[in-house]
Automatic annotation (TrEMBL):
InterPro entries the record matches: Fe-transptr_FeoA-like, FeoA_core_dom, Transcriptional_repressor_C
GO molecular function, one term: transition metal ion binding
Name of the protein this chain belongs to: Ferrous iron transport protein A
Pfam family membership, one: FeoA
Domain Ferrous iron transporter FeoA-like: 1-72
Record keywords, A-Z: Iron
Amino acid sequence: MTLFEGQKNFFYEINGVFTEEAVARRLRALGLNDGTTVKILNRKRNGALIVGVRGTRLALGKHISSGIEVKEEKKDA
């Protein structure tokens, strides 16, 4: 599944970033690497996601979050 398909307050493990090379390189620099756990904090009307990763909040547009493959880890208790 992709990060864009994820639900709010769930944790996901990144399995791969499949976007343009420049975007993928920037996401890796921000800490979005394979095996990294991210939490979807909020979903905006325009399709953007607010995610928490390594203590930082990032906003990702629909195009970018649709190119990030993830697997579900667990729901926030």
